[in-house]
Structures are given as structure tokens and as C-alpha cells.
Design a protein that fits this description.
single chain, four-stranded mixed beta sheet, two-stranded antiparallel sheet, 8 helices, 6 strands, 56% helix, globular, disordered C terminus
């Protein structure tokens, strides 16, 4: 049987795996450069950027006593698998922020350092342009994209941890998952527009903000559609998982649905320390409400 992922190394005791789907990513990245050597180098730098991003999450979580099982690099990005998540919301906030912080630092260095190397006559203008694109802009895109308030992006966990200051984890996850699904649908809409050639008017914003907005709206077709669908489905899975952790959806495979429509029995309408759950067999002693203990 062919394995779907292969271990390439260990960093700080964490196994790093390469998924077979990376072949598609490497082909896509390489084809975006006219020079195949630059394209291959850009693909390797992208994998390094994703690995460092996931290591940021992993090392902070390990500082809070969590065990990191492995890191897997895939076509849709990286995934750090933790055997357990921090229980306190401020710890989850720091773990979620760590990855984008690493990408931001590397991205800024990727914009500044090539200019310095040119002034010192260490590299050519062509190499500097390549480094700015492959290191600077790539990591800044990772930074901005991962801050989208949508599960499984880091921004979704940051939003949930911030909401837990005022409400329960169930309620915070419900809100964050709905925002995530909304953004995923916007992303998929723009992806379909790009694929069928519908022009997308975008506001003219200067600087990095304008560049990132243009990339988010106007670049990418199939991959953006794939990532949007992943965000949409994972947002629902995250909410179902939180319900299951609290014992409210053990036998409900559709907990957290629908996204649009009226009321749903699974989502708490008010944060009064309780969560509305489905009718029997989830009812306890004839009641359809159970306590949710805040952390």
C-alpha cells in the first residue's frame, strides 16, 4: 500500500511529514515562475515558511504543557497535530498568535534584507526581486490569510479566545464558526468568478493592504475554491467537536447546522451559562437545557 505522507525530519523532537498532495503544490508554484529553477526554489521556500509557521504554534503550545504529535505539510498548507489543546482561553490565544507572528517577522525581513544585500553588492537585482516575492510577500500572505477569523485559520481561534472573555466556549465557537462559514462562501464566490472569467472590481488601496486585498479577491481559482470549501466544512466540524466535548452532541452528526435560516436547537441564543441542545435522547430529566461550565 502506498503511504500518503512521509517523514522528512524532526525539529525540536517534532516529526515533520510531507504529504503526497505537495506534488500538486510544487507544480503550481513552479509553473508560476518563468525560470523553473526559481520556481523550484520558491516551492522549497514556501514549505520552509509553512514549517516555521507551524513550529511557532507548536513551541508555544509545548510551553503550556501540550504534546505535539506531528506537523504535516499539505497542498492546502500545514497542520500541527496536538494531542491536547490548552484549556485556558488566553493560552489558546497565544498559541494561535504565535504562527502568524513568525510569518510576519519573516515576511518583513524578506522585504528589508534583500534591499540591504543589494546595497552591499552581495546579490543581483534579479535575486533580490525573487527573494522579496518568494520570502517577503509569501510570508506576509501567510500572515494575513491565517488571520482571517475562520476555522481552521488562526484568526478563528484568536476570535474565539477573545470572545471567551465575555461568554462560554460553546457560544464563542458558534459565533466564530458562523463568521468563518460566511468568509468561506465569499472566498468560494470569488474563486468561481476567477475560474469562469468574471471581472471583479476591487477598491484601490495603497501599500501592503491594497496588495493583500487584491490577492485575496482577484488571484487564485481552483486552489482558492478548495481552501474555501475546507474552511466551510471545518468551521462546522469545530463547533460539533466543542459540543461533543461538553457532552451535548454525542449522537448528533449535524450539530451546528444550518448555517443560514431561522433558529437552530444546537446554538445558544443567549450566553446565560447554558446551551440549547437537541430534543431527546439528549434531554436530561425531561429538560432540553444543560449547564455549560465556563472555564
Amino acid at each position: 500500500m502506498i503511504k500518503t505522507k512521509y517523514q522528512c525530519c524532526r525539529v525540536f523532537g517534532i516529526p515533520i511529514y510531507l504529504d503526497l498532495s505537495l506534488i500538486v503544490l510544487m507544480i503550481w508554484v513552479t509553473s508560476s515562475y518563468t525560470n523553473p529553477i526559481f520556481g523550484l526554489a520558491a516551492g522549497v521556500l514556501l514549505l520552509a515558511a509553512i514549517t516555521l509557521h507551524e513550529l511557532g504554534h507548536s513551541l508555544v503550545s509545548m510551553a503550556f504543557g501540550c504534546r505535539v504529535h506531528d506537523i504535516t505539510l499539505m497542498v492546502i498548507g500545514g497542520r500541527a497535530s496536538l494531542d491536547n489543546m490548552p484549556r485556558k482561553y488566553w493560552q489558546e490565544f497565544l498559541v494561535a498568535v504565535a504562527g502568524p507572528a513568525v510569518s510576519l517577522v519573516i515576511g518583513l525581513l524578506g522585504l528589508i534584507v534583500p534591499e540591504l544585500l543589494i546595497n552591499l553588492n552581495v546579490i543581483t537585482d534579479q535575486m533580490a526581486v525573487f527573494l522579496v516575492r518568494a520570502v517577503g510577500w509569501t510570508n506576509l500572505m501567510l500572515f494575513a490569510f491565517n488571520l482571517l477569523p475562520a476555522f481552521p485559520m488562526d484568526g478563528g481561534r484568536i476570535l474565539r479566545s477573545a470572545l471567551q472573555v465575555q461568554m462560554s466556549k460553546v457560544r464563542a465557537t458558534w459565533i466564530a464558526s458562523r463568521i468563518g462559514r460566511g468568509l468561506a462562501m465569499i472566498m468560494m464566490f470569488f474563486a468561481v468568478c476567477n475560474m469562469i472569467g468574471i471581472p471583479i472590481p476591487t477598491p484601490r488601496l495603497p501599500g501592503i493592504v491594497g496588495q493583500l486585498l487584491w490577492i485575496f479577491l482577484c488571484e487564485g481559482g481552483f486552489f482558492k475554491l478548495l481552501i474555501g470549501w475546507m474552511i466551510y466544512t471545518t468551521a462546522g466540524q469545530e463547533y460539533r467537536m466543542v459540543l461533543m466535548e461538553d457532552g451535548k452532541a454525542r449522537n448528533n452528526p449535524l450539530a451546528g447546522f444550518p448555517f443560514f435560516g431561522g433558529t437552530t436547537n444546537n446554538a445558544p441564543p443567549l450566553d446565560d451559562g447554558q446551551a440549547v441542545v437537541s430534543p431527546p435522547p439528549y434531554a436530561r430529566r425531561g429538560a432540553t437545557r444543560v449547564d455549560v461550565h465556563k472555564e
